[in-house]
Specification:
Elements (H helix, E strand, L loop, with lengths): L2 H22 L7 H7 L5 H14 L4 H30 L3 H15 L4 H14 L4 H25 L7
């Protein structure tokens, strides 16, 4: 298995385990006020995988780094999208409705009228139905990975030594 595939699998499985752990801790069901923030931290999983892949592969230029990041992200996206389909169907099928309800409550608390909050919530639910949800997850993981690859390449590229 080539390094890009290996690190992509690590990222995909790692994010899936992160989401499963959040679910088991109740962060997607009973402690959603905490869970809305912990999900953001899951970006550490693919960021770490890309970092270690770059240390191993040492892309020679920016475009080579993006290609590596794309491959890692594509493998991770396949795994995460498949996992999320299982999660949405079997592990926590009502999570989206719960998340939208929490968002509606937050909108009303911030001063938006209940009618506008309800309209926004129903539009959100329409937007995140299958197959749009899976396509969004897949493309989102790839875009996120490309951004992380660009940042990682820039942060780790060899610097010219000052004389």
């Amino acid at each position: 298995m080539n390094p890009e595939t290996r690190y992509g699998a690590i990222a995909g499985i790692g994010v899936s385990l992160w989401i499963t752990t959040e679910f088991l801790l109740g962060l997607h069901t009973t402690r959603t006020s905490i869970g809305q923030y912990t999900g953001i931290l899951s970006i550490l999983v693919p960021a770490t995988a890309i970092y270690y892949a770059f240390r191993r592969i040492k892309p020679g230029n920016f475009w080579s780094g993006l290609k590596t990041g794309f491959t890692i992200s594509a493998v991770a996206a396949l795994i995460i999208t498949a996992f999320m389909a299982l999660y949405n169907s079997y592990m926590n099928p009502g999570w989206l409705e719960n998340a939208v309800e929490l968002q509606k409550k937050t909108m009303i608390e911030s001063g938006i009228s209940p009618e506008k909050a309800e309209a926004g919530s129903s539009e959100m639910l329409k937007l995140y139905k299958e197959p749009i949800r899976s396509i969004s997850i897949f493309l989102g993981v790839i875009i996120q990975g490309m951004i992380l690859a660009a940042i990682t390449y820039w942060a780790t590229k060899p610097r010219a030594k000052a004389i």
